[in-house]
Amino acid sequence: MPSKPEQQVELDFRDHRPIAGDTRRFAIGEALFLSPLPIPTGNAPMDLGGSFVEVNDTFLDVGSSNFGKAFQARAMIGLGMMFIFSCLIVLPLLAGSTTWGNPFSESFWDRTAGMFHFGVTFSIWGGGIAALLGTYVILSTTRAKSRTRPIRFNRQRSEVCFFPEGSDVPVIQPWEETVSWLSISTGVTGVGVTSAYTFGMAFDDSKADVVHFVRQGVMTSAHALGKWEAIRIYMEKGPAFCPGKAPYEGRHTFDQERQDMHEEYQHNERSALGVGWWYLTHLITWWRFPYWVAEWDHRFSMKSLPDSIAEWSKPLPSEQWAKPSPALKEQSSKIEKAFAQGQDFMTYFKVNLNESKAEESTNS
């Protein structure tokens, strides 16, 4: 379910349909719409999350691959190992030095040993719980991927096919009418102001009288603009101009990373300390095991699209390819001239989301 700020933007969708460059405020942030019409953003196309699961001259499938699964497994293992290390080493020594005084006294070491035995018991239970939680995260994300269908962008027909969760009935809409946006939400914590960025797309199912929203958290606004630009430029120019299919991760990825690390050291691009840190962090996170997890995840690809759109997905003769509308050509030409004059997407539309965030945080 969308969060409350996003609901405020989405519930207003049909009554006030946006266009590229529109902005809408909500309780703790602002949304900038990137389409329709899908005009150039001026950003470099990127697919950092490994979401391009199929790329060819007819269609682009955007969804989830196993890219990043090894990092997810390493993160889960690393957190568990840090917890165990803290229980067995850090807490006993810290408690002993701050509570029992002289570290050279017999009582200090007796009580530290007692705390160590307590740490062993606590780390077994805590480590077990952490292992179960980590396993749940890994299994649940793999399960979710295998039950979800990718979004298919057909550049020859200039249409987009989306399957709602649990449905075998596709929502097919014109590419130029697809709505996408970047939203920035701001929150205040004890240490300062935090920002969360979201890239979203909307698919209007007029038959069922419902709008489906797809959202993905991104690190920065540039990541959202870059991902949308990768999709947009594919639809306009083809696969040669966008990122390729997401790479497959596995144990070979570990070997390649280690080889790259050694080459960096030989070319003085990495220090001896950096090499030691690489080996230490990978030993702590169980060496090749996370990459084996990535290989296992790769066996569970996204749910295949049904035969109902097989004909829709077939290549068309070039003379039957859909052409961009005059409105899209005109708007694209205008913004590309602005880019040539040194402007970017934000300045072209006179938008500064960072200033908007600061203003709302101050008012709150």
Could you walk me through the main structural features you see in this protein, from its secondary elements to its overall organization?
This protein is an alpha+beta fold and 364 residues long. The protein is 45% helix and 18% strand. The protein contains 10 helices and 10 strands. It has helices at residues 4-10, 69-99, 106-146, 221-237, 251-266, 272-284, 289-298, 326-340, 345-348, 353-363, and strands at 23-26, 29-35, 52-55, 59-62, 151-154, 159-162, 171-174, 179-189, 192-205, 210-218. The protein has a 5-stranded antiparallel β-sheet, sandwiched between helices. Strands 3-4-5-6-7 form a 5-stranded antiparallel β-sheet, covered by helices on one side. Strand 5 (151-154) and strand 6 form a beta hairpin. Helix 5 (251-266) crosses helix 7 (289-298). The chain is globular, with a radius of gyration of 25 Å. The chain starts with a helix and ends with a helix. The model is unreliable at 1-9 and 355-364 (pLDDT under 50).
Number of helices: 10
Indicate the low-confidence ranges by residue numbers. Answer: 1-9, 355-364
Spatial order of the strands forming the largest sheet: 1-2-8-9-10
| Strand-pairing-aware structural class | alpha+beta
Molecular shape: globular
Rounded to the nearest angstrom, the distance between the terminal CA atoms is: 25 Å
Amount of helix: 40-55%
